[in-house]
Amino acid sequence: MKSNNAAPAIHDYYRYVEDILEPEDIHDASTVSDASAANGLFIVLAMVVSLLHAFNLYLFLGTNIWPVIPVLLHLAIAFVTAMVTYAQYKKGMDVQHLAILSIVAATTGVFGSLGALLGFVVAAIFKRRSHHFKEWYETIFPTDSISEPQRIHDNIMEGIDENPRQYGVMPFVEVMRLGSENQKRRALAKMTSRFHPRFAPAFREALADSSNTIRVQAATAVAKIERDFMVKLNRIELARTKAPKDPHLTMALAKFYDDYAFTGVLDGELEKLNRERAIQTYKSYLQQDPNSGEAWIAIGRLLFRNKQWDEASDWFRHALDRGWKSPTMLLWYFESLFRTGQFTSLRRAMLEYGRGIVGKDDLPKPVQDAVAFWMEVA
Q1: pLDDT tens sequence across 344-355
Q2: Which CATH number does 298-378 carry?
Q3: Which end of the chain is more exposed for a tag (fewer CB within 10 A), N or C?
Q4: pTM of the model
């Protein structure tokens, strides 16, 4: 498992879950810091063993001492070195250099211990210049990057227009309404393999299609989506067991429930339950990060979807008091006030925040006109 507690570079929380669950790279697992305790012990032990073996060699060659004594001394040094290595191994320390020292010193004496020490120094020098396995692999098998024309072509082939802000996934809906049976089957296959909650309207059209073949394929696709839902949910929960205090996993779970609450193709009761779960999980995330505007806005939106309009208007009011005034959130707030009949508060809100809506090019003109009208009568 990767031990990464930093916030994800992008807001792809599902990818973050997979990173948590990804097994440790064998090349990372075998990498040990140069400043580790085992390496420090190796340097000291290698120097001591080298001195002892050098002294023992002197006794064997430069004196008239009985030859059995240097042999016994050599065996004793080798035994102690092996025991130190084994003790470090039992503690879970990295002992690759210690193991080499034990083997070569036991077989070649001072020459082996000096060679092991030299090998350690050379490895430390070259390690600083080495590349990670992934970087080296990329130089041999580079990952193909998709060009902008290719991306647009893929979107068109998948039924998604290159301007999602204006058109969204309407091509799929139109295929389900007006396309031939072959076109509908192909569209269903694409929507199933690359499911997104925004595909829900097209799935609903397919489930009500006049063709029995299309209805069966759509029902099968919905069943697969529900299975995938459970698989992904289990993956997130498994990641949370590995890092229970990671706030990003809490957000991942909240967004997961949030996304699947708006699919429109799951069971109605399950969708309602997912909305309630999303609200509770977002609130849990706010306990870890009280200043998350994303979580505050999401809870208000979910309350509105649950037709809890009074709670939604109060929640949006608190969010506005905290300084979050995105155009989308303001529209949810205006609609909440309208649904609850708080017209006085709605007029006041229009005067206070309406200018943040009128003139926004990325909002539909009917929405801007409605806000402008309420500002005039306020």
Answers
A1: 888 888 888 877
A2: 1.25.40
A3: N
A4: 0.54
